[in-house]
Amino acid sequence: MPPAAGGAVDGAQVYAAQCVACHQATGAGLPGVFPPLAGSEWVTGAENVAAAILLHGVTGKLTVKGSAYNGQMPSFKDKLSDAEIAAVLSHIRSNFGNNAAKVTPDAVKAAREATADRKDSFNGDDDLAKLAKPAN
Quick check: 116 and 54 in contact, CB under 8 A? Predict the structure, then answer.
């Protein structure tokens, strides 16, 4: 799915290929099973956290819009390029009723570098809350 030389990555296409089975075409997810992307604080929050979630995945309890989910989201760090992750994040941050800024490949690259030592997926709310806190 890499873009042709000089071409842009289509975030909607990446979403359809990689995300729609769990998060659905509407971004609403499946209640109690797969969390929604529509209105998700993880989607519209800090871009570094959203990028880290796609890079490394999440297991365990994750709270989205006040509802707890306890599942597993796969890691895409070895499957998608920085440009593909940026494109799909930009797509979900500007669709499904979301209105957050686009994400650049450079932002994904920075998140990839900042979390390069991570071997496992994030442990839900616990790990992601720490990641979301600004560095002192």
Answer: no
